[in-house]
Amino acid sequence: MSPRVVDDISAALAEHGLIPRGGFVFGEGDATPAGPAGRPARSVLLVGQAGAAPWLHFQRWLKRQPTDLEEPLDTWSREIVGGVAAEFGARAASPSDKPYLPFQQWAMRAEGLKPSPLGILMHPAYGLWHAYRGALLFDVEIEMQGPPEQIHLCDLCIGKPCLKSCPVDAYSEAGFAHQACLAHVRGPMGAPCRTGGCLDRNACPQGLAFRYPSQVQAFHMKSFGGF
User: Looking at the record's lineage, which domain of life comes first (predicted)?
Assistant: First the structure.
């Protein structure tokens, strides 16, 4: 696949606030998912966002949907990525597909990123304020430059404020205390998290220009809390 086609895919995604997030050709040792023809795919191009760029596009779409629609962001993402996949002869995949595909490993390989202490991949420009919304799987090889060598900003961070701001210490070197976090978010002291997002994530000083607005963070916390 020529770079020009990748540019065309980028233009199609931009209409929805989405961007390509790098890609690669699968190797012989990879557990390769099926491409559009049903055979193992030859290559993958990740699709995602930087900051909250898709939010207004998603909100306009959401106003036309039933009020009881479950997992609306996943549904919107599947619709948009699926449409672009159909236009360019690819098969769409979603991070919520089961059995789950290794999106984080793909992202690390495609963009050269590493996880932060919160588990979210640290991006040198976007910080923790980015996401992967899907992937395009192709039967042909795509011409993509390999990721540049990235500085992992977490290695340079001495104070690690992302591990010191949560009232219930949900994140630590031991991992993520899911039940403690969920109970706090749902409880009477969890209002700041419900309305403004994860305190640990917001404590990170990187990528502030891409930080999600409070209404976007509240949307994600509502989904996490099951409200």
Answer: Bacteria
